[in-house]
């Protein structure tokens, strides 16, 4: 996703500029992708976060970072996020959330 405006740090307001809370969000990942800490451009092996892929109509697929291991719902399950926030860096948008819930 390309940025619309530049602000610093993660914010819920930035997330709502990209993600429409009235539209369904679908989980595309079947397993979490660990994010490894790097020092001096070398991986340390330490997992610092987890990422998963999601989709919403009208948007390209996007990743959301979680600071701890969560349980993903089944593929293409509809979800909502706990405290979804976004951060704009350069021309990219990064998302993080505290957790997610499957909508049944």
**What is the CATH T-level topology?**
OB fold (Dihydrolipoamide Acetyltransferase, E2P)
* The number of domains: 1
Shape: globular
Biggest sheet overview: 8 strands, mixed
Please state the second-level CATH architecture. Answer: Beta Barrel
Distance between the termini: 28 Å
- Count of strand segments: 8
Q: Structural class of the helices, strands and pairings?
A: mainly beta
In the predicted model, the low-confidence regions spanning at least 5 consecutive residues are none
The CATH superfamily title: Conjugative transposon protein, DUF961
Number of alpha- plus pi-helical segments:
1
What gyration radius follows from the Cα positions, in whole Å? 14 Å
CATH class, anyone? Mainly Beta
Strand content: over 45%
- Helices and strands, in order, run as HEEEEEEEE
Mean pLDDT: 91
Residues in helix, %: under 10%
Quaternary class: single chain
Structure description:
Strands 1, 2, 3, 4, 5, 6, 7 and 8 form an eight-stranded mixed beta sheet that branches. The protein is built from one helix and eight strands, in the order αββββββββ. The chain is mainly beta and 104 residues long. 7% of the residues lie in helices and 47% in strands. The protein has a single domain, classed as Beta Barrel (OB fold (Dihydrolipoamide Acetyltransferase, E2P)). The mean pLDDT is 91. The longest helix has 7 residues, at 12-18. It has one helix at 12-18; strands spanning 25-27, 33-39, 42-56, 62-66, 78-82, 85-89, 92-96, 99-102.
């Amino acid at each position: 996703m390309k940025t619309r405006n530049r602000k610093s740090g993660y914010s819920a307001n930035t997330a709502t500029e990209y993600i429409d809370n009235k539209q369904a969000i679908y989980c595309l990942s079947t397993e979490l992708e660990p994010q490894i800490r790097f020092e001096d451009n070398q991986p340390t092996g330490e997992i610092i976060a987890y990422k998963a892929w999601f989709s919403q109509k009208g948007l390209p697929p996007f990743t959301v970072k979680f600071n701890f291991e969560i349980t993903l719902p089944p593929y293409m399950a509809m979800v909502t996020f706990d405290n979804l926030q976004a951060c704009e860096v350069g021309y990219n948008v990064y998302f993080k959330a505290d957790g997610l819930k499957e909508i049944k």
